[in-house]
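Trying the structure run again after the queue cleared.
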Amino acid sequence: MRSFWSNNSCSPTWPGLFSSWLTSHPPLLLDAHPPAFPLHPIPGCTFGKATPEDISQLPEFWERWFSSSSRCCIPLERIRRSHDAGFWDIYIVRRGVQVVGSLVRRWVTGLHVKEAYMPKAGIIDFFCVHPAWKRKGVGRTLLYLVHNGTTQPTPPHLMLWESYLPTIPPMSAGLYWKKECRLGKREQLDEAEERRVWSRLVEGRPIWSEYRKSEDLHIYSLTSGHVVIWNTWHRRIPQGDTIGIVLACTGSVHELYDCSPFGLLLADTKYEGWDFNGPFQWGLYNMNTGFISSQFPLLHWL
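Done. Tokens:
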């Protein structure tokens, strides 16, 4: 993947970030009309947009290979709904009929990065390569497919890594903190109330998006406020309970410990009683921010 970022006009750089920070330049696109990348054959493989047959393999493929620290358990119907509605662009590398690499671009509408506004931005997710096919150009080809398949002008794309990549300046970086919770049912707000709460939560945030009803982001009421939790579709090994990430909280997060829709919660904030989990880094492709946030972006994606 490193070769994708090198000699790429859409790749942010540390000198560019520091220059924009020193001169207080607003976040800007790096290259609105970048050239397409040449796609090279991968011996024995074909690649392109996913077919229905490819999509049917993805739940098992992701459960086995997407993460070594947790198990990705996303239902097939969830994938199909987003793909068929045009919310997800799914790119595949296959060996014969077997999927050996995948990447999903999820769309965000109304991205705000401080002073900058973009009507549309992409999130790179489910970027997964079968272990036997790593270092064979599969990951690079998937990233090239997304780059080449983007309409002009090229919008920014965000990507989350659960590690630090020092060669790529982050848009946001920090530490995960974790808390085990007792599973319990909580009612989500209706769409109208979610929209009102969202409009208050984004105030003062450096990176946020406009509200869209999402299957993956849930807003719950607390006694003294609200909490937004991202359903990651991951389960802990070996416990099997679900993992959620707290994106914003205006009340007492302690209320969730005895009645939570998720067995394990992660957050970018060290609340009392939470334990260290590990680093995270959000990268931003084709945009120079001029700053690094320590908060998770507050985004609604489809």
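The first helix runs from residue 2 to 5. Worth checking whether this holds up in the mutant runs.
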